[in-house]
């Protein structure tokens, strides 16, 4: 009887190992699949603006534009698409830096209100163009946080750009406040919102909510991935709350800096 139990246990372990190997295989397959999907998505995303640039510059080069207005129009398309390409390449570059661990933070005590103000000013033309309203509710005397200024600026830029991109009307509010030893920043919009089942996936590389995909606004699905990596590298946290067709709130928590540097 005793002898019988040993082989049974052994078989169990072998079976267990078999299952683990299979799981590992599935995981590797998953990574392989997502890498292939990634490359396909990148090539597709990069090709679209290039097609426009090539097409319209060909037309101009062959002198096929009928009027000065037409020339202007084609040039502005070329310009816009080149701009889009440049944003995408930046996103990709940022992401590859995050991935190979070349992710050094140059942390200094910073007043986040200043960064928020700067980002809001940079995006103001887009906000005005879409007829949106932007409100800043920034706490006076907000304690400084020790952050990498450029990275944190990118965080605010990505979040604010999304708020603009995924809103057709209404208001965008950026709020800063303190909660114990944390600085809290909220970026709220009254835009299209994110469907609940997709909420947990928006942080994934290249993930775009179903109805954003075919859209002309473009985008790589990298923005929020990069945002999360940066916040977490700072020891902070980011959360999202969203209601379909009502709006979205992103909340960032960062530790206040103990250093008193002016
Ligand atoms: P993208 O380049 O597509 O904007 P992101 O990683 O920045 O990529 O965002 C991932 C997806 O999350 C977007 O495709 C969009 O569907 C959704 N999303 C992000 N921010 C918002 C927002 N403020 N309102 C509604 N949907 C959003």
From TrEMBL:
The keyword GTP-binding is assigned to this record: no
Ordered alphabetically, the record's keywords are: ATP-binding, Cell membrane, Kinase, Membrane, Nucleotide-binding, Phosphoprotein, Transferase, Transmembrane, Transmembrane helix, Two-component regulatory system
Membrane topology classification: Multi-pass membrane protein
Does the keyword ATP-binding belong to this entry? Answer: yes
Show where the HAMP domain sits. 1-33
Histidine kinase domain: from which residue to which, for each copy? 41-258
EC number(s) from the headed UniProt entry: 2.7.13.3
From the Swiss-Prot or TrEMBL record, state where the protein is found: Cell membrane
Reaction it catalyzes: ATP + protein L-histidine = ADP + protein N-phospho-L-histidine
Which major enzyme category is it? transferase
One term of GO molecular function: kinase activity
The protein's name in its UniProt record: histidine kinase
Look up and give the organism this protein is from. Mesobacillus jeotgali
- Please tell me where this chain falls within the complete protein, as first and last residue plus total length: 199 to 460 of 460
């Amino acid at each position: 009887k005793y002898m019988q139990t040993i082989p049974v246990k052994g078989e169990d372990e072998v079976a267990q190992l078999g299952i683990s190997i299979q799981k590992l295989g599935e995981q590797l397959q998953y990574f392989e699949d997502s890498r292939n999907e990634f490359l396909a998505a990148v090539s597709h995303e990069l090709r679209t603006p290039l097609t426009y640039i090539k097409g319209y510059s060909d037309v101009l080069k062959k002198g096929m534009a009928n009027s000065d207005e037409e020339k202007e129009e084609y040039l502005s398309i070329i310009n816009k698409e080149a701009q889009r390409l440049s944003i995408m390449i930046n996103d990709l570059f940022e992401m590859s830096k995050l991935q190979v661990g070349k992710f050094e933070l140059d942390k200094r005590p910073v007043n986040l209100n200043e960064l928020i103000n700067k980002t809001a000013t940079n995006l103001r033309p887009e906000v005005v163009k879409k007829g949106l309203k932007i409100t800043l509710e920034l706490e006076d005397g907000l304690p400084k946080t020790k952050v990498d200024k450029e990275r944190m600026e990118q965080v605010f830029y990505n979040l604010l750009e999304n708020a603009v991109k995924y809103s057709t009307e209404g208001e965008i509010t950026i709020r800063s406040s303190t909660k114990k030893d944390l600085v809290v920043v909220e970026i709220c919009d009254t835009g299209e919102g994110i469907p609940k089942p997709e909420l947990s996936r928006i942080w994934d590389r290249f993930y775009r909510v179903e109805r954003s995909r075919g859209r002309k606004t473009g985008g790589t699905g990298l923005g929020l991935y990069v945002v999360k990596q940066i916040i977490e590298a700072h020891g902070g946290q980011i959360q999202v709350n969203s209601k379909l067709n009502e709006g979205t709130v992103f909340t960032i928590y960062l530790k206040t800096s103990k250093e008193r540097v002016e």
